[in-house]
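Following up on my earlier thread - several people asked me to post the actual chain instead of describing it. Fair enough. Here it is, all 348 residues.
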Amino acid sequence: MDIMNLEEAGKTVTALPEPRGPVSAFLFERLVRPPHDLGEPVEPSADPVPRDEDLQIALFACYELHYQGFDEVDDRWEWHPSLLSLRETLERRFERGLSEVVRRPPPVPAAELPRVLGRLAAAADDGPPLADYLNHEAGRAHFREFVVHRSIYHLKEADPHTWGIPRLRGHAKAALVEIQADEYGGGRTERMHAELYRATMRGLGLSDSYGAYLDRVPAITLAVNNVMSLFGLHRRLRGALLGHLAALEMTSSLPNAKYGRGLRRIGGDATAARFYDEHVQADAVHEQIAGYDMCGTFAAAHPSMAGDILYGAACCLALDRLFAEHVMKSWENGATSLRGGGLAAEPG
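Reply from S.P.:
Thanks for posting it. Predicted structure:
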């Protein structure tokens, strides 16, 4: 069945994705069996980590066992020692690759951290003009393609960063809870950001099913998502997790305003644009909470982790830049930025 066709609203697509190389083929073939010792995996490729399709889809699947899982995969795999051992191997390669792409900023005193975070976020404006293109020039097909990419995160929005809550205390914890409460709609299902994004997808004739487009997105889109899970699932990386979230919040309001205008320009209605409108308002507030109340107080309590906060922010911004470069270069060359060809026609 063409996964681009509309499916039942809100449905979760939980089939394992297609493998993209020897590592993911090795893993997926074994995950459909009862939990057992995986044995020695094949050697990973030497591709650049952010664009290594095999690595990123295998790591994404490992992480997804901590979220919605897969129908054909026994839930006991989530914490199976053999699976965790393989995931550790993939994570080591991912972390090494990140260190090659992202320069670790020097640590700064806690009092200066919010200001330095702001400088990092401001520098992101020098990246590829993806938001401007979607605002002024993109047609409906390009906008749909962008929404497909972002659906991998936005249909689980906030979940990776929520892993940080039990790992914090005091002011930093309260600040993170305040941000996350807004992401989850203040307890109202219809206001959850993931639900608002479903409406955006439906408005563009796309499936709003969780996981529907996993096989269509490239490695860089998966890497953008995998770095959040990497930081969220490791207590040692909680500083990087907070920095990552702060960078997201600090670079969100202006692009989302452009996305909203672009969506209306191509005929999107208020319901479809509500997701972007909500982020213009909410993230302007979250930016201050994240920078000062969350990261600032955490750095004051843990001075040795100030550098980790900045590194997490730098990873967020660097991967988002690589994502934008991929999308813009594809479109400039008249090609799709997705795997497997362009988007199918919308249902008539």
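The chain has two domains: 22-101, 110-332. That should answer part of your original question.
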